[in-house]
TrEMBL record:
<dbReference type="Pfam" id="PF01738">
    <property type="entry name" value="DLH"/>
</dbReference>
<dbReference type="GO" id="GO:0016787">
    <property type="term" value="F:hydrolase activity"/>
</dbReference>
<feature type="domain" description="Dienelactone hydrolase">
    <location>
        <begin position="31"/>
        <end position="244"/>
    </location>
</feature>
<protein>
    <recommendedName>
        <fullName>Dienelactone hydrolase domain-containing protein</fullName>
    </recommendedName>
</protein>
<dbReference type="InterPro" id="IPR029058">
    <property type="entry name" value="AB_hydrolase_fold"/>
</dbReference>
<dbReference type="InterPro" id="IPR002925">
    <property type="entry name" value="Dienelactn_hydro"/>
</dbReference>
Length: 249
């Protein structure tokens, strides 16, 4: 594995506060958060969530920031409504994961992106993945059957080496990693780097000290060290997508 399967730390974190600006609507039989005024035929970003789903204020606020940067942003429900609500790690995570197998989840993602492509034919499609969602984001920059042009993930879980090896050379990958992370520890981070170098991928890996797994989407915003890492990870994503959306035109 390039990152370990989701574990207890994937089921804990902090809630963020703020007013969101998007709406939830049905798209391709999936409830989807939609935000941004940019045309969907121009620049699109699709977010693959962690276990807290697409009603989680934290990820909606991230989507709104990406939208303000000039993208139409979608967050489809890849959890088929079965979201986690507890933030204290008390959830039976093995039981939850058993109901969210990779094959079923992949079908939801493929269906959403293929229909988005057919309906709007966007000039640029970026994809973001947090924790649980990172695996399905990486799959979408496969040279073989990926439907996205570029990817950004944070504290990934469940990504396999074989999935990394399929990444297209012209499909860049941005990774935000935590210094303390049993799911994406140093040895797997280095293995990921070696694999990306081996296949000639375009990539960037940012390692943030003083933070742990989940920091980018559900970190403690009252801690200045974590808040810096959260903000920087998002700013990096915005710069990443804005740069390559111009390159790909």
């Amino acid at each position: 594995m390039a990152s370990n399967p989701p574990g207890k730390c994937c089921f804990s974190g902090y809630r963020h506060e703020g007013e969101t600006s998007g709406v939830h609507e049905m798209m391709y039989n999936v409830e989807t958060y939609i935000t941004g005024t940019t045309s969907p035929s121009d620049k699109v970003i699709v977010i693959m969530t962690d276990v807290y789903g697409n009603h989680f204020t934290n990820v909606l606020l991230i989507a709104d920031q990406l939208a303000l940067a000039g993208f139409k942003v979608y967050i489809p429900d890849i959890l088929f409504g079965d979201i986690v609500s507890s933030m204290d790690g008390s959830v039976d995570f093995n039981g939850w994961l058993a109901k969210h197998d990779p094959i079923t989840t992949r079908k939801i993602v493929d269906n959403f992106l293929s229909n988005l492509r057919k309906e709007f034919n966007p000039k640029f499609v970026g994809i973001v993945g947090y924790c649980f969602g990172a695996k399905f984001a990486v799959q979408q920059i496969s040279e073989v059957d990926g439907l996205a042009d570029i990817c950004a993930i944070a504290h990934p879980s469940g990504v396999s080496i074989d999935e990394l090896k399929l990444i297209g050379k012209n499909k860049p990958l941005l990774i935000a990693a935590a210094e303390t992370d049993p799911i994406f520890p140093a040895e797997l981070r280095h293995q990921t780097e070696d694999t990306l170098k081996e296949i000639g991928a375009r990539y960037q890996i940012d390692l943030f000290s003083g933070v742990s797994h989940g920091f980018a989407s559900r970190g403690d915003a009252s801690d200045p060290v974590i808040k810096y890492a959260m903000d920087k990870a998002l700013h990096d994503q915005i710069f990443w997508f804005k740069h390559f959306s111009k390159v790909n035109k």
